[in-house]
Design a protein that fits this description.
It contains three helices and twelve strands. By secondary structure, it is mainly beta.
């Protein structure tokens, strides 16, 4: 199989020690096993992709049951789509595990970032804040001017201000794979990934030629 990605779940952060004694911060991910639930084609769907199912659940609604009936009847909690180099050898119901990755290659990890709630401009956009002296006793974390007066006489769209932070779809690119454990379905990648512990991720092979 030449499937480019797999669904996983964040286990947590740890350290990985190399043979030369150096250590790097890594993230442990429970990657797969996944089941192919649908193969989309240009003729029927307008584009090509592979839909994967991850984490079996006991109950589901009728539309999802009907959709997954062709995949062996298992009900999957999470469904994600990914690409493949070759669609001819793929069949609905086939299993995909973490063995599609190799140590040393780069992957892109997509997930939902941690929700931070309502935050000010300093935390949300790294604003510098106001001066600490010269009588500015209440402007330390203020945003400053948000627009001109007469012209245009309004706040322009897209102005960076305080508001809800986090809970967005984020992709971290070109993370190095440092360990692949096919027996325990564990994948270690160097660096941090989006989301909290147990949040769902899509790990896909990076297109970068670095």
């Amino acid at each position: 199989m030449a499937i480019a990605g797999i669904i996983g779940k964040v286990i947590g952060g740890t350290q990985f020690f190399y043979e030369d004694g150096t250590a790097h911060a890594v993230t442990a991910i429970e990657a797969g096993p996944c089941t192919i639930t649908q193969i989309k084609s240009l003729e029927k769907d307008g584009y090509q992709s592979v839909q994967l199912g991850f984490e079996i659940m006991k109950k589901s609604n009728k539309p999802k049951k009907g959709h997954l009936a062709m995949a062996g009847g298992d009900l999957f909690r999470h469904l994600r789509e990914t690409k493949s180099d070759d669609y001819e050898d793929l069949e609905v119901g086939n299993q995909v595990d973490v063995g599609i990755f190799e140590v040393g290659e780069k992957v892109n990890v997509t997930g939902i970032s941690k929700g931070k709630g309502f935050q000010g401009g300093v935390k949300r956009y790294n604003f510098r804040g106001g001066p600490k002296t010269h009588g500015q006793s209440d402007r330390h974390r203020a945003p400053g001017s948000i627009g001109a007066g007469t012209t245009p006489g309004r706040v322009i769209k897209g102005m960076r201000m305080a508001g809800r932070m986090g809970g967005d779809k984020v992709t971290v690119k070109n993370l190095d794979v440092v360990m692949v454990d096919t027996e325990k379905n564990i994948l270690l990648v160097k660096g941090a990934v989006p989301g909290h512990r147990n949040s769902v991720l899509l790990i896909s092979r990076a297109n970068s030629k670095k």
